[in-house]
Amino acid sequence: MTEGCRLYLITPPRLDPAAFRETLAAALDAGDVACLQLRLKDAAQDDVKRAVEALMPVCHARDVAFILNDDAILAHRLGCDGAHLGQSDGDHAGARMLLDGKILGITCHASRHLAMTAGEQGADYVAFGAFFPTDTKETAHSAGTDLLEWWSEMMEIPCVAIGGITAANCAPLVRAGADFLAVVGAVWNHPDGAAAGVRAMNAAIAAA
Ligand SMILES: Cc1ncc(COP(=O)(O)OP(=O)(O)O)c(N)n1
Ligand SMILES: Cc1ncsc1CCOP(=O)(O)O
Ligand SMILES: [Mg+2]
Q1: Does ligand 2 come within 6 angstroms of the Cβ of 86?
Q2: Is 121 annotated as a binding residue?
Q3: Residue nearest atom 5 of ligand 1, based on CA coordinates
Q4: For residue range 103-137, what is the model confidence (pLDDT) as tens digits?
Q5: ipTM of the assembly?
Q6: Which keywords appear in this protein's UniProt record, sorted alphabetically (predicted)?
Q7: DSSP letters for the chain
């Protein structure tokens, strides 16, 4: 059993905020979730704002951090707990200054160099992936457990593993030192519903 790994939930790429509130509440009530990342690819800023206003209170009522994908300025403006930025999502150093005291996560693909740079720039976590094939996003990078082992032995900054992670395949990532497992499909596409997905992920993490 490996201590300390937690579930990092990412929203489906498209959602209706009013309807999704209930689904989200049921998922968060099903077990431990460290944070929710709102990831609405290609949504207009007004739609993202409406989704933040609908969903952030659901998270905060349950002590779950609310992180916005892609846009540090909007995350700051809307009072989110932080932002997740990829390598093409703007100026990481500027985001670090803007999000003073908030969470900044940075995608580092499968690169030690990107991860060390992100750490130097003050990232609160680095994200590695993709670990497995995924239908959620087209991925150009493939990460392995050796990267998680190296990072967690060398660095204090937490690391997130992402990409095709399920209850059935996550154990090696937990054992390799991932601090968080970020998932979309394993929860929202679970055949028995999102609450069952959260329960299955937490059971698999605990058993790893
Ligand atoms: C926790 C986490 N890790 C990686 C990503 C991917 O970010 P990015 O490379 O910017 O790709 P998009 O998510 O923007 O398509 C993430 N969102 N969250
Ligand atoms: C956003 C993202 N970045 C790399 S893989 C991925 C998608 C993760 O979704 P899933 O857990 O469904 O594979
Ligand atoms: Mg991005």
Answers
A1: no
A2: no
A3: 107
A4: 999 999 999 999 999 999 999 999 999 999 999 99
A5: 0.99
A6: Magnesium, Metal-binding, Thiamine biosynthesis, Transferase
A7: --SS-EEEEE--SS--HHHHHHHHHHHHTTS---EEEE--TT--HHHHHHHHHHHHHHHHTTT-EEEEES-HHHHHHTT-SEEEE-TTSS-HHHHHHHTTTSEEEEE-TT-HHHHHHHHHTT-SEEEEE--S--SSS-------HHHHHHHHHH-SS-EEEESS--TTT-HHHHHHT-SEEEESHHHHT-TT-HHHHHHHHHHHHHH-
